[in-house]
Amino acid sequence: MLASLSSTIAKVQNRWVFLILACLHQFLLAGFIFGWGTLLPILKSEGVFSGQCKDAENTCDAADSKLNLMFTLATIALSFGTVLVGPIMDHFSVWVARMISIGLFAIGCLLLGQASSNSNLWIVGFTLLGFGGGCIQLTAFPVAGLFNESKSLATSLVAGTFAASPTVSLLFE
User: Fold this and answer.
1) What is the pTM of this model?
2) For residue 62, how many other CB atoms are within 10 A of its CB?
3) Where would a tag sit more exposed on the chain, N or C end, judged by fewer CB atoms within 10 A?
4) What's CA 74's distance to the chain center, in Å?
5) Are 111 and 125 in contact (CB under 8 A)?
6) What is the pLDDT of residues 5-40, one digit of tens each?
7) DSSP 8-state secondary structure symbol assigned to residue 134
């Protein structure tokens, strides 16, 4: 009986750890691109795509168009990623889908770290952030299934941390 109680306590603790990790991933990674309003002035001040401008100014219509394209592709990738990750979750597992998602997000971060100011790596990297973020979002929801008596609470925590994730970009100001 004591072994059974100990096993039950471990399972309860593990499910809370999974929920906390899922919420952390949601908050820090999944919706990062939706902090675009904060990121755009930073990207402009860093001179991203400023080589598109004819004068010595940091911003022009051509640079703004490239930045808008970058955001548009990332948001499309976020939505499209969820369509592709569903079959991966069904055929393999949530864990495999989550690791692929985090890997894509990490590759996007690495590409952004290597991008020069006029490189198209910005577009590819941001698109991978969107794709990986959407997949991270979708793979977090099955964690709610661990909470039989409070599935709605777990689901709302996961969804709420995604909605709050654009605030992470405020740290870059």
Assistant:
1) 0.81
2) 14
3) N
4) 10
5) yes
6) 345 444 556 788 888 888 888 888 888 788 888 888
7) H
Q: Which residues contact 29 (CB under 8 A, 6 or more apart)?
A: 102, 105, 132, 133, 136, 165
> What are the structure tokens assigned to 90, written together?
């069904």
Answer yes or no: are the C-beta atoms of 132 and 104 closer than 8 Å: yes
Cα(95)–Cα(113) distance, integer angstroms: 27
Quote the Cα angle for 22-27-31, to 5°: 110
Region for 47 from its dihedrals, namely left if φ exceeds 0, alpha if ψ lies in -120 to 50, beta otherwise: left
Interacting residues of 8 by C-beta distance below 8 A, sequence separation 6+: none
CA 16 to chain CA centroid, nearest Å: 21
CA pair distance 170, 148, nearest whole angstrom:
36
